[in-house]
Amino acid sequence: MTIPEERIERLHSLAYEAATASNQDRAREYVRLARRIAERNRVDLPRRFKRFTCDRCDSYLRPGSNGRVRLQDGHVVVTCDCGEQARYPY
């Protein structure tokens, strides 16, 4: 694992901990920083990181608190509080 990938994993765990502690602003900063590191180093974000972050507002999504998860027609639909929806096949 390269240094940027390790850093992104660490930021993912920090964002999760901050979101669990109801500190959404700090979690949002961790998500933004991880995306920036991935862009600069041309590294893909891990799938679990992509699926639990909002593309519009950079929130770390926690189902039940700031994200809604529904199943529709063979897709998982994740909706953020800002209104952004992400659809993933299953």
Oligomer: single chain
Category by helix and strand content:
alpha+beta
Strand order of the largest sheet: 1-2-3
Overall tally of structural domains? 1
Largest sheet: 3 strands, antiparallel
Morphology: globular
Series of secondary-structure elements, N-terminal to C-terminal: HHHEEE
Structural overview:
Helix content is 46%, strand content 19%. With 90 residues, it is α+β, with helices and mostly antiparallel strands. The chain has one domain (3-89). It has a three-stranded antiparallel β-sheet, with no helix packed on it. Helix 1 (3-20) packs antiparallel against helix 2 (24-41). The longest helix has 18 residues, at 3-20. The chain is globular and about 40 Å long.
Q: Any key phrases for this structure?
A:
46% helix; single chain; alpha+beta; 3 helices; globular; 90 residues; 3-stranded antiparallel β-sheet
Helix-strand blueprint:
Layout: H1 3-20, H2 24-41, H3 47-51, E1 67-72, E2 75-80, E3 85-89
Antiparallel strand pairs: 1-2, 2-3
Helix pairs in contact: 1-2
Quick structural gist:
It is built from three helices and three strands; from the N terminus they run H-H-H-E-E-E. It is an alpha+beta fold. It has one domain.
